[in-house]
Amino acid sequence: MIYWELFLAFFIPNIIGYGGGPAIIPLIEAEVVGRYGWMSAQAFAETLALGNALPSPIATKMAGQVGYEVAGAGGALVAVLATVVPSLLLMLGALGLLYRHRESPRVKRMSQWVRPVIALMMGWLTLGFFLEGVGGAGLLHTLVIGTAAAVALLRFRAHPAFVVLGALVYGGLFLG
Amino acid sequence: MTSHRKAPLGDLLWAFTRIGLLGFGGGPAMIPLVQQEVVKRHAWMSDEEFADVLAIANTLPGPIATKMPGYIGYRIAGISGCAIAVGAVILPMILAMILLLGVFSRYRDVAWIHGMGQAVVPVVMVMLAQLTLDFWNKSRLALGWVISLAMAVVAGGLIYGLGLHPGWVIGALLAAALLRPGRKAAEANP
Q1: Is B161 inside a domain boundary?
Q2: Alpha carbons B190 and B182: distance in angstroms, whole number
């Protein structure tokens, strides 16, 4: 039962999430935190922070970690397979068909039409993490860390791993 | 599509391990690395083939950085090539995640470790804000801001106002995009 839920929780976001791994983040949050309540928003943020600091695709790292947390190694396997296999099978199975339609306006429209919804869900999640930050670290620290992170990431194009590391040091020193 | 060179599984394993370890910034940021290994370094595919495969992968949902390695691995060495390529990209860092977060949550009760956890929330907030802006800008360029905003507001009302599962909203949009006649989108995106 838990395996079936894990499968669904990762299968659904990945089969509707157009726009690559990052598009899937808010959809996974909706399942993992919202629907099934397997993780707190705080734990999800920690997973996401580490996921962004490490290389390789974000969707599979999230799946592996959440699956493991919920149901051990078997859970990790189910969640990762639910993330990878369906779209890969579609790709291998329907390649000829997809090849003919790769420039089709209808197919292009599919990813275009999903984007505003993903943008909105992403924005909603951003707001959620702002409130989570205010509730946990407090408004002042949230603004300080958030501003510093924004300047480092956007202005100086700092590597996400260093920004996460910087936040860890700040938290260890000032939020302990 | 032209014929392709057979490759030993070891080459495949190393090429995709490198991609997995060097590919920071999520799947879409990894595509140039895949191209570097597959086209430039090993010549398993031509540039044109790679571009076609990428275009096809983009017509499907799900993470791009597993569809590409999976397909390329399959083309080069069948099912085992597919499994090795995907595994090499994703497994090392899945293990790293589980290990690091496992250690982290074991010491969560220690005050300064708890503080570290709280301090990454605003960073994640900023990263997501960046992605939000990214998706919004792409959407605005393709559909115009009026339509993008209208779609976002309606979707938001359904998902957060009425509590509808996002799958239904996106599923309905995908079906509409596929079934409606093709002219309008072609004009909107010349």
Answers
A1: no
A2: 13
In tens, the pLDDT along B53-92 reads: 888 888 888 888 899 999 999 999 999 999 999 999 999 9
- Is A159 within a domain? no
Number of compact structural domains in chain A? 1
Q: Do residues A63 and A80 touch, judged by C-beta distance below 8 A?
A: yes
Tokens of A122: 């992403």
Q: Is residue B146 part of a domain?
A: no
CA-based nearest residue in chain B for residue A162: B123
- Say if A96 is an interface residue toward chain B (CB within 8 Å): no
Residue B32 lies in a domain: yes
**Closest Cβ–Cβ partner in B64, B94, B135 for A122:** B135
CB A44 within 8 A of CB A50: no
Q: pTM for the complete prediction?
A: 0.86
Q: Dump pLDDT digits (tens) for B8-54.
A: 899 999 999 999 998 887 777 788 899 999 999 999 999 989 988 88
Give burial (CB, 10 Å; 0-12/13-18/19+) of A89: exposed
ipTM of the complex: 0.88
